[in-house]
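Whether sequence alone determines local backbone shape is best considered at the level of individual chains. Part of our work consisted of pairing the sequence of a single chain with a tokenised description of its backbone. This step matters because it turns folding into a mapping between discrete strings. For completeness, the protein is quoted in full, as a sequence line and a line of structure tokens:

_____
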Amino acid sequence: MYLFWGDISFQLRTIRVTAKKELGFSPKRCEEREIPLHAELAKLLERHPHCEMSPFVFPSPTGKREQNMLLKCKAVAERCGLDAAKFDLKTFRSSYGTRMLRFGFDVRTVQHWMGHKSLETTMRYLAPAVDVQDKVDLVALPSITRPTARKKRSTPESSRKLRIRGGK
């Protein structure tokens, strides 16, 4: 809700989280940071309409800061057939953190993106995965997994037995 067009670099595909003192907004830990922007999201934002009279990416109808961002998100959830009561802006943040960690980004990087002071705060997003059964089944267990059949080496003894039985 505090995102300005000037905070987005389409060339670098990043969003810069910056303080907006005039609006009473400061980033977590008061540290500005850059967050990578997914290519598809960058394309959507490039096509998003610009309000000439406002620096905001998502302005209110009057061009000011959108005060009802949460209500708008809940309305989108309802249109999608989801339970709007489960949606809040903090949930979006934690979903982002959890998804980035599960996707394989290291904890320190996610810590920076989220603006957390301590690693322990970011570690809270490392909740146990619930959809792991298929991945677990792909792990080979050395004591259980059957070895592939190896081709027998021929020895002078086995070659002699083969010739005696009429083989070549």
Observations:
- The first strand starts at residue 8 and ends at 9.
